[in-house]
Every structure is written in structure tokens, then in C-alpha cells.
Design goal:
By secondary structure, this protein is of the alpha+beta class. It is built from five helices and 15 strands.
Length: about 240
């Protein structure tokens, strides 16, 4: 027999069809062997062939089983929905006074957001304004539920000041000057919005609820992926 195939002994994959009557071939490497083929087999070389149990076949002996294909699809789809979850939680929608903002919740801003919430929570616990009291710059007080910070040290007057309505605009109280306490909250486009402690706490609470909802959605989708019994069912489960 002058016609043969060179195949990999590990995978069974046919690497080359050889006609020893026309060409000289080197000895097969240690990872390969040769198998004589019939003239009919020689005439039908098209496609991918394997050698299994000493016979040619076009059935891949290394093809994954249905269970393996399902497991692979499940792993891939879990990666898809996890990425979608990450994208959905990078920016958190919150509504303050009728305006919806996309608050930056990326890794770089998570610690800052938490710090803002902690600061805001402490601020809303501030002592109520007191008459004829010495205040120092940076000190906080609450006037009718509005958190003010002392921008100029001094002594308060006999009646509570009317809180300012805009950030950066001080009001005079005796020899003290008060301003609205505010902090920058960074948004999706890189800009920021100034918020009061109460607004920050509201935004934080809304954000926590949104993140909880997104987490529940991710868990549900993961469970659906695990419960799917076919590749097509798995691939139909999207964010």
C-alpha cells in the first residue's frame, strides 16, 4: 500500500495524506503514526478526518459532549450577564428634587461616595443653632432642619438666621457667618452636582436600593442560567 495518512496519536487528527510511491517522507515523530488507506478513502480526502481504533472517520472523537457544551455556554453567559451587571452599577440613577442624576459609582468613586454618606449622616445629627454662642469656623449647626457650617468664626445673635438658599452665599448671624453645607457628588459625565447632607443621604439610600435590585437581578439570572437545559436556552438569558 503506497497511500497512507499521518495522524496525531493523541488526538487522532489526520495531519497529512501521503503517497509514498511519489514522495519520500521522514519517519513519523514520536507523537504521530501512519495508517494505510484504501483508494476509495484516498479519493475522498476533503474535510477533516481522524483515526479512531485504527480506522478513518470524520467524527471528531474529541468533540465536546452535549453536557460539556452546555457547561461552556453557561460559563460564557454568566460572564456576559456579570459584565452587564458591572456596567449597570457603574453609574447609579438617583432623583433629587425632581432631577435625575447618574451618580458615578465606579471603583475610583466608591470610597468617596461612602465617605460622603458618612459625613452627611454625621451632619444631620448636628446640634441645633443656639443664640449668643461662640462658633468656630467649620463648626456645624442645624436651623429648621437645614445644615449650616460656620465659614467665619464669631458669636451668634439672639435669633436664628434664615438659612441661605444657594451654595457659597453666607448669611450673617451676629458676628458669625453661616453657609449651606454641601459636598460635590460626581456624575457619569465627569461633572459634579452640589448636594446638601440630606440630599446626599437621599441619594445614598436610593443608590443602595438600586444596587440591591441589580444584585437580586444578577442572582436571578445566574439561577436561570444554571437551570437551563440547552445551549439555546442559556443564550436566550440576557440582562
Amino acid at each position: 500500500m503506497t497511500q497512507q495518512v499521518l495522524y496525531n496519536t493523541t488526538t487522532g487528527a489526520v495531519l497529512q495524506w501521503q503517497d509514498t510511491s511519489k514522495f519520500n517522507y521522514a519517519e513519523p515523530p514520536s507523537t504521530c503514526s501512519v495508517l494505510p488507506v484504501t483508494s476509495t478513502e484516498w479519493d475522498n480526502q476533503a474535510g477533516q478526518w481522524w483515526v479512531v481504533n485504527g480506522a478513518l472517520t470524520q467524527t471528531n472523537p474529541n468533540a465536546p459532549t452535549a453536557a460539556e457544551l452546555l457547561a461552556q455556554a453557561q460559563a460564557e453567559q454568566k460572564g456576559v450577564v456579570t459584565q452587564a451587571y458591572n456596567t449597570a452599577t457603574d453609574y447609579v440613577p438617583v432623583t433629587i428634587d425632581g432631577t435625575t442624576y447618574q451618580v458615578d459609582n465606579t471603583t475610583a468613586k466608591q470610597a468617596l461616595n461612602l465617605s460622603l454618606a458618612i459625613t452627611a449622616n454625621a451632619a444631620v445629627q448636628s446640634s441645633a443653632w443656639a443664640a449668643d454662642t461662640e462658633y468656630t469656623a467649620g463648626q456645624l449647626c442645624s436651623v429648621s432642619g437645614v445644615i449650616l457650617f460656620c465659614s467665619t468664626s464669631g458669636k451668634s445673635g439672639s435669633t436664628a438666621p434664615t438659612p441661605p438658599t444657594t451654595f457659597g452665599t453666607p448669611v450673617t448671624d451676629g458676628t458669625v457667618e453661616w453657609e449651606l453645607m454641601e459636598r460635590k457628588v460626581y456624575l457619569q459625565d465627569g461633572s459634579f452636582v452640589m448636594m446638601t447632607p440630606q440630599q446626599i443621604l437621599s441619594a445614598f439610600q436610593q443608590g443602595e436600593l438600586y444596587l440591591h435590585q441589580m444584585s437580586d437581578k444578577l442572582v436571578s439570572l445566574m439561577e436561570q442560567i444554571d437551570a437551563a437545559t440547552t445551549v439555546s436556552e442559556v443564550q436566550a438569558i440576557g440582562w
